[in-house]
Queue: 2 jobs
Job 1
Amino acid sequence: MNFKTGDKVVVIAGKDKGKEGKIIKILRKENRVVVEGVNIVKKHVKGNGQQAGSINDIEASIHASNVMIIDPKTKKATRIGHSTDKNGKKIRVSKKSNSNLD
């Protein structure tokens, strides 16, 4: 998976198609990401002696194939490629504008 926490992404499939947000969490084993403000679900929390029960809105994970990273130059969805910089370090590169994503 080529995503990192903090990347700006756009949803390209599903009920939240077209929404943009930052990646909050990455679940690498399940190939899923949690994006802020996307795929909001209701979570029922049982009360205890000090707090009453409640229903909270939280972000659920979305499959990584349903999001694309936003190109910093063109502000449009793009694929991610890999290249090496001058020091020989591997970097992520935008396929649309060939700009550095790291």
Job 2
Amino acid sequence: MMRVLLLLVLLLPLPLRAQDAEDLPQLIVDFPETEAIPGQSLSLRLTVLVPSFMPKPPVWPSLEAPNLLVRLPSRSTNPVSERIGGETWAGISRHYRISPMVPGQVVLPPQEVLVTWQDTGTGEARQATLTTGPIGFAGVVPEGAEALDPFLAAADLTLTQEIDGDPAAMVPGDSLKRRVTAEVSGVSPMFLPQLLAPVELPGVAAYPDEPRLSETDERGALSGSRAESVTYLAEAGGGGALPEITLEWYDTDDGVVKTASVPGLELQIDGPPPGRSAPLDPRRIALLAAAALVALGLVFLALRYLLPALARRRALRRDRVLASEGFAWRELMRVIAARDHAALRPALDLWARRVEGPDPRRAAQVEAALLALGAERYGGGGGGGDTAWSTLRGALEQARPRRGAEVRAPLPPLNPGGAL
């Protein structure tokens, strides 16, 4: 196979002094290597030097870019000194580890470093912005690893598997948990791909957990692990095969492609198979649609003709209630309870017209109660007493005919002849 090799030449010689004027801060870019296998790191060091000292630390660039992993190792920033022009300059150095995540060329645009330094001539603090040139490098796939997808390079890689449950003896309601862990050294575990792909099995519901990543950095040597787990719940009879997990990777120590794998397993669930709903017959769907239309039509007709009839019936019933003796009686009792002299006579006349039989206003007790009420109102009593109103109410209740009462003739004597 043709070796994939992408080279990038730095635009400025290394190390690079961004400013070379006398007594002005200087920036040195140290980038010795410009090629790396994806996932492996390159060392980039930026050094700022000033002729006096720096009252504030420099503001460093982040170097962030797509498909690029930038890390600061332990003790990435350190003080330095250097002899320039026979004098000792103080400085600070920042160390970056840059890892291309995919094959191909990467060019970082010029980066700025803000420096605050003490001007020995004026005795004041000054600021200067130092700029690097473009920083370029490449991710290179080694020969023989071109077919890896995704590409993964590490010093070592192992796969382990844990099974919690018995896959060969499951019944609906049982569960099984499969946990697969990949451990790598020489690369960050974030480069590891997904281990447990989704699998659909009849009668089985899968519940994956969130992947767990663990990373360690020991003097620049990265290592870590990625753990994934899925719980399979038996819902009905069925099951099937959970596939083997295979991961191909490039061994950076041996320079060859290797394979790590864990075996698959077979789930066997005893029980009735999951129910399947048969598709509806098109003719049945048409009949159901026609029945729904007929039902809607009947509802429309019922609402159109039944609602007006119900409204008329309700109006007639209301009119009968308003024209009844009972309604007039309740209105009369309301007027008496309110002690309303002005509304008493109209309410009494309305009730009297609706009473069958003799006029209750002509009853002796009613006339006497009305006279007493008038005397109390116009005779100086003010009409505010409750006695006359209570007397009137009692008289009206006695004069009101009882419902269902019939006038019957007295019974004839049991012994018309008077003989015993």
